[in-house]
Amino acid sequence: MTEKSIVVKKTLDTRHAALFVQTASKFKSMVKVALEDKIVNAKSLMCIISLGICPETEIKITANGEDEQDAIKEISGILE
Fold first, then answer.
1. Looking at residue 41, what DSSP letter applies?
2. Is residue 13 pLDDT above 90, yes or no?
């Protein structure tokens, strides 16, 4: 399992949320996003939108699977 905490730099509006989910969905690994006490599936647009991620928010991205390191790197790049 690989995880990374990041401080979000970009607003996660609907367009960026869709890009985030599309990127997460390319990977075979299970990818989760945690914000405070909420943990959601990064491959679900509704779950990502429900977090209400905004700039200067710290989140944790976790990936578990054969391509977990690549997933963390590419997904976090969208928000940094």
1. E
2. no
